[in-house]
Amino acid sequence: MAHLDDTHVDDRHVGDASARTGDPAPDDRRKPGSPPDLRGRTWGYVLRATVRQFSRDQCLDLAAALTYYAVLAAAPALLALVSVLGLVGNGGQAVERVVGTLEGVVPPDALNVVEPLVENAAGGGGRAGFALVLGVVLALWSASGYVGAFGRAMNRVYGIDEGRPVWKLRPVMLLVTVVAVVIAALVVAALALSGSLARAVGDAVGLGSTTVTIWNIAKWPVVLLLVIVLVAILYHVTPNVRQPKMRWVSVGAVVAILGWLVASAAFGLYVATFASYDATYGSLAGLIVFLLWLWITNLALLLGAELDAELERGRELQGGIAAEETLRLPPKDARASEKREAKRQEEIERGRHLREAAGREQEAEPGPAEQEHEQEHEHSEHGQEREQHVREQRPGGPAARADRR
């Protein structure tokens, strides 16, 4: 599994948050105001840089990591979903409506994984209330892991460290998680509230058939609007960069949503027409397809984020700001980065002291060549002493003459 951390080797795209506090203001007047103000050469540069950075930032691996966190959040979210269906009543109709709606987006094999779980849990009846509370709590906790991972991925896209302290970062991520879960619940409710179920709810609250008909048509723009809001929040809040302004509809968000719809449809067509996942994976085919679809979804989100980041680089370059190596957006906070950098420098100093101490010890002790020379010298002295002793003991030698005296 890929790991999402704050380290990434790319001199062109990475910047320490503490070192970027002196960057120009996000809304610097030298920058073009909007994407239509960009020149043709700038657009060409942006598109090439987007493709290049998508590869350099290892977005394929980032999407795999995000898919893992999405799977962890999917089970409790599904529990909350089916609990809502059980509370609404006519749970069978609601399940059929949701499944029928997803058929146009989710690949068939992936839908086969979700459909039986929804059908089994929707008949919970009296347990729906408790399951709803439990599902919401678990969904918030699990989804916060995905939001945090998405924030780390966005920091890599913008080439900046996470500088926000934990006490500041965690509440923001939890708030984003709550908003994301609420939006997801509204999307599910909008998809489920149609057809006969919409008429039943309309009759219960006193709405006429005309209102229900209008809702059946208007729900699709509502769902699209909710998705746009969700993507905009993820793109703007999660990274540790101060962006020029909150863009509810950015170029990257549009590309991400449209790319996701097209890729999902193409993948569903491929699975239904050409692929043989059933023959290869057997009973696991639906799960494999579901994971691949989630991976494609996260790829689309990361591609849109890369495009937004490179568009900001293009605005800076066209405005005469030196952003060819690093994006010149100031961080939201650099305190955590400064603390990490201080600790890193302390580790470097300890390592330097360790190396220098080892060098002094090596200088004090004789090296292998010196030890070998001393041993040869000792052997030579011992040999000379033995030769002197032998000469003295020979007949006619000094020792023999002394004995005769």
TrEMBL record:
Residues 1-37, 322-405 are annotated as: Disordered. It is a multi-pass membrane protein. The keyword Aminoacyl-tRNA synthetase does not apply. Keywords: Cell membrane, Membrane, Transmembrane, Transmembrane helix. One of its GO terms (cellular component) is plasma membrane. It comes from the Bacteria. It is found in: Cell membrane. Residues 395-405 have a biased composition (Low complexity). This is Membrane protein. It comes from Promicromonospora thailandica.
